[in-house]
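Hi R.,

As promised, here are both runs. First protein below:
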Amino acid sequence: MSKKSLGIHHITAIVGHPQENVDFYAGVLGLRLVKQTVNFDDPGTYHLYFGNEGGKPGTIITFFPWVGARQGVIGDGQVGVTAYVVPKGAIAFWENRLSNFNISYTKLERFGESYLEFDDPHGLHLEIVEREDGEENSWEFGGVSSKYAIKGFGGATLLSTQPQKTADLLEKVMGLEKIGEEGDLVRFRSTASIGNIIDVKLTPIGRGRMGVGTVHHIAWRAVDDADQLDWKKHVEASGYGVTPVQDRNYFNAIYFREHGEILFEIATDPPGFAHDESQESMGEKLMLPSQYEPNRHQIEGVLLPFEVRELV
């Protein structure tokens, strides 16, 4: 069976205080908080989702805010850098915006593209790159118009304990196309127009340590439940142990750890984030899965309050 991944569905990371997280991703980057819910395995912790106006796959970054948790170390076995894509001609706007918020950044060139590289308040490594690909994000917030708004993921840089095995997985199992090498990076591309560029660093830098400021896992897209089951069989046939299907309310998920020790998920595109609240009101209130609804009062008493606010 030959399969080709569409690319990134979402990326999930661990951060600190939820207000700092919301201020940065909504207030500074202008993303939409499309869902506030809880970690289904730890309902005393938020699970916050940010993306484009509709919360489409390929635009979603999600967070577990763990106040007081130890700081992590970015390294092998993790996503090292998460890249965002903006429209052509928007990079100067983002240079000015980062400067106005006193966010230090570095300009770099890679594979013929210009990147702005910077960190979020909790230490996650981020990049912004201009590309024609990907549909415009119509969400406008905090001084970020649709002309400059982040479309979604440009891609990610993977740090692996066994880089060649990770590269082989991307090409031979996930069906990405190898499109170039530069320095100690090898670049792959998926079939989608967004969340489609993956760089693998070929030189190990030392094992990462999970904690605040690190990516927990990267999720790849499955068209629907049937496609996800095909992916499960395909990945298992390639020698990886895959979990049973997990119901995450807004998608179904399966997980496996690849040989370079990065946690991969394959998540379904449907049902999306508007099935339990309207698209217009997404993200405005805490949504709980049915098993936790009877405990809403206790859960709300534990979670730290926050607000989505304009910072300019």
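And here is the second one, sequence first, then its structure tokens:
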Amino acid sequence: MAKRWYIVHAYTNFERKVADAIKERAKAGGLEHLFEEVVVPTEEVIELRRGRKVQAERKVLPGYVLVKMEMTDPAFLLIKNTPKVTGFLGAENKPAAISDAEAMAILNQMKDGSERPAPSIIYEIGEQVKVVDGPFASFQGEVEEVDGERSRLKVGVSIFGRKTPVELEFGQVEKVAV
């Protein structure tokens, strides 16, 4: 029987522990030949923490673990009885395998994320922001343009009573609570 990709549903924030537990239990039970890969899909992102850009890891599919395995009764029971696992993705307690193309799309999203870290804060046109860094610090303005690829914004700031467009990085502004 060929190995196929399955999605295992786990408790949120326990995905890594579930993946490790599946690998350990397979090794301990002598079933490691049934499991090819156990992956927690994550991508690298840039977050703003205390005004600084910090590289962090974000889960692509929170609450899910990808497993490439041969679906046999012992393998099914091993995963089903793993702590913090609620079951497989599928209907009526029957695990549904995903296609290799779907699995590759998820795995490629992980690789693309590491090459081009995505900002975790998204700005929208017309949104009010406050400048926290640079020569326009403490000014407030309205987002006029968003350049997600370069992580830059064009913000309309009122200087001497006139609205002036200023180009800023995502890290130089923060959202204003309305």
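A quick note on the second one: The two ends are 57 Å apart (CA to CA). Let me know what you think.

Best,
J.
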